[in-house]
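Tokens in:
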């Protein structure tokens, strides 16, 4: 786990600072801090309280063909999205106010906090779409409001990240995360309805997937 954490920081730093051609990129430093400091504390929390959850989150091999395609698209979005801000910083394409970047950092933190609440409530919130032995439908906490609170947090983070990194240009590459996640949710619900006992009743009780009163 520590090696994975260090590797994640190294990869993310390289994707931001190498295209920028400089370490003088305060938005990137602020973003890395706002992202990885909470991640470290959350990792320690689950190591102490729910190590099985961390093991599930480390699995990356999807079983569903549809999800395999979605993951490939997601990787492409991730790579392009995090390379463009550095290039933007180097060539001065955008002029995002410092205040906007700071506010966006707070939204990134808020998005991650929503993900943490979903993770804490649902130990089966794995990275891959699957139903495992002993899995139960979770209806409490944020799951009593919407069916996919983790994706609410993810979408909030991805929309805020371009502004946090001072790049309007990167928004064009991050916005596709929304239709991609909607497609993922629809396929995920097909799997859960088919394989997870009680999920159909939960859907009838908790009607909205992401936004109460909308969808």
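Residues out:
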């Amino acid at each position: 786990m520590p090696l994975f954490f260090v590797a994640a920081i190294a990869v993310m730093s390289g994707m931001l600072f190498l295209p920028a051609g400089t370490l003088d990129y305060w938005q990137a430093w602020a973003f890395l801090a706002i992202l990885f400091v909470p991640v470290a504390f959350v990792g320690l929390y689950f190591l102490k309280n729910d190590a099985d959850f961390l093991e599930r989150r480390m699995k990356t091999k999807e079983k569903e063909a549809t999800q395999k395609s979605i993951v490939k698209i997601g990787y492409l979005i991730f790579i392009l999205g995090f390379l463009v801000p550095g290039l933007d910083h180097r060539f001065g394409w955008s002029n995002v106010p410092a205040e906007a970047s700071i506010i966006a950092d707070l939204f990134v933190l808020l998005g991650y906090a929503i993900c943490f609440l979903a993770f804490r409530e649902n130990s089966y919130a794995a990275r891959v779409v699957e139903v495992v032995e002993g899995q139960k439908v979770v209806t409490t906490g944020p799951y009593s409001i919407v069916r996919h609170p983790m994706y609410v947090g993810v979408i909030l983070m991805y929309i805020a990240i371009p502004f946090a990194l001072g790049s309007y240009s990167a928004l064009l590459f991050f916005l596709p995360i929304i239709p991609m996640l909607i497609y993922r949710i629809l396929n995920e619900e097909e799997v859960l309805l088919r394989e997870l006992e009680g999920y159909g009743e939960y859907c009838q009780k908790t009607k909205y997937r992401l936004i109460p009163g909308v969808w």
